[in-house]
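re: ur question from earlier - yeah i can do the single chain one, its not a big deal. heres the input i used so u can compare w yours
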Amino acid sequence: MYNLPYVLKRTEDLNKRHYFKEKEATTFFQSTTTWLDQVLPTAPGLISWYKSKTAKEIADRLSETSHRGTFLHTVTNEYVQNNQSFPLTQRDEYIQQYVE
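and the output i got, formated as tokens:
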């Protein structure tokens, strides 16, 4: 596992994600996806997809994709800053560190 200088946690409220440093939960950072949802219109294809699914199916898929997105951004950041690759066999364990 990586030894980051701090532990970053994710919290979600009304489908809006924010991140914070574990021991400094006074400053929250809005997720890129949450920000984009506020400034861009929802794609027509996504609206159609929402209409074709149950609330549970939508919630499950959104949860899965938000975890994947957090993982992807974190691993990309590690690679860019430290030139470190990530063993994909540890993906689920790694993601759990960031899920609140």
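The helical segments are 32-39, 44-52, 55-82, 91-96. not sure if urs matches, ping me
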